[in-house]
Amino acid sequence: MAQPSIRIIGAGLSGLTLGQCLRRKNIPAAIYERVKANPTRNNYGITLYKSTYKPLLDTLQITEDDFRRQVGVQHPDSGVVVSDDQKLRVNRAALTSLLERDLDVQYEHKLINITHSGTSRSILFENGSNNSKDDFHLLIGADGVHSAVRFQLDLHKPAFDLEVLPYVVFNGKRRVAYSALPLGLLDCFKSPDGIRHSQDGAVLSIKADFWNPDKQIVAVSYTLSRAAGEADRPLLYRNISDAETLAKQFVDEVASLGQLPAPFDGIFNPATMSEDRLLHWLMRSSLADDNDIKDAALDNGIVLLGDSAHAQPIPGNGANLAIDDALELARYISATGDVNIAAFLQARSQAWAEGKRENERALAELHPASESRARI
């Protein structure tokens, strides 16, 4: 029997997890990723729930202890993995490396077109100075909030409504020599949720990214968030490419807060922040219509997964939902490459909707403010 041609667009958490699930079932799949291969591209921390990573262990054929050892963020002093009863702090680059093992991942392939006529289906890529074509029986769009697959399906309002929630959020990443740690900074390595401080309407948080014992470097992510006002409309309606250019405002906002308590004063320091990579984040929230997802699968052999179907605002539950999606979808893909899309949506659509509501509720509770929303 001929092997089914399953193609996955996007080598993020959902795409790689699905690739591992299919490999475990001896179903081959090729994964295409737009960017260059870079082992440290996602070198930051994310928080996984035990209910998400425990089912992944069987797929990876790894014990929980080995999983925690390979991807868990460790406390620099004790070596204990940052976790609690329900959650585990992991380094995303390490998790990506683990998920990528033994998979067929082809980098620098930018999707530019999908064609389908009856049972004939193909994808066209831009690969450097050349274009390449590949046929597919089943295509998985796991390429994130700005999904090229979803764009090709022409899903717009009301089938897919990408909403920018009314919050101003800036993020920075800092690497600090262990010998020069600000007082109290290692407190963020005691919990997956890190540490938090509120001042003058702004919420400041610091979370653990990794500890490099060889270089004696501690890495953290830090965030300032607040409710948006009318004067913030340019931030909410900004171009996607302006995430770095607008980050200067991050330094200005921190300076306006005045004196901060330790260890926040050592990280949120206008004098040193310019040396960090600073970004302005948009709090995006979206949910694709079930019927449109079902039609795309039945008519075109295309399934949307993860943020392509339901973007979660940062730092929401998107990573967990992406992995959960992949684990569940693999159950409904047969050895012939066919997918029971109705069963998959029945299993997952409620979690998508509840996740969207819960993340929006949590943001509102954290930043009590205006009820108005800016939409794009």
Walk me through what this model shows.
With 376 residues, the chain is α+β, with helices and mostly antiparallel strands. It folds into 2 domains: 6-36 and 98-161 and 285-366, FAD/NAD(P)-binding domain (3-Layer(bba) Sandwich); 166-282, 2-Layer Sandwich (D-Amino Acid Oxidase, Chain A, domain 2). Helix content is 31%, strand content 26%. The strands form 5 sheets. The protein has a 5-stranded parallel sheet with strand order 5-2-1-9-17. β1, α1 and β2 (29-32) form a beta-alpha-beta unit. The radius of gyration is 21 Å and the shape is globular.
Which features characterize this protein?
376 residues; alpha+beta; FAD/NAD(P)-binding domain; D-Amino Acid Oxidase, Chain A, domain 2; 2 domains; disordered C terminus
Question: In summary, what is this structure?
Answer:
The chain is of the alpha+beta class. Helices cover 31% and strands 26% of the residues. The chain has helices at residues 13-24, 50-60, 64-71, 92-100, 148-153, 233-236, 248-256, 264-267, 270-273, 290-300, 318-331, 341-366; strands at 6-9, 29-32, 45-49, 87-91, 104-106, 110-117, 120-127, 130-135, 138-141, 163-164, 167-177, 195-199, 202-212, 217-227, 277-281, 284-285, 302-304, 374-375.
Work out the helix count. Answer: 12
Question: What string gives the helices and strands in order?
Answer: EHEEHHEHEEEEEHEEEEEHHHHEEHEHHE
Task: Indicate how many domains the architecture comprises.
Answer: 2
**Residue runs with pLDDT of under 50 for 5 or more positions:** 370-376
Q: C-alpha Rg, in Å? A: 21 Å
Proportion in β-strands: 25-35%
| The level-1 CATH class of the largest domain | Alpha Beta
What's the count of strands? Answer: 18
CATH superfamily of the largest domain: FAD/NAD(P)-binding domain
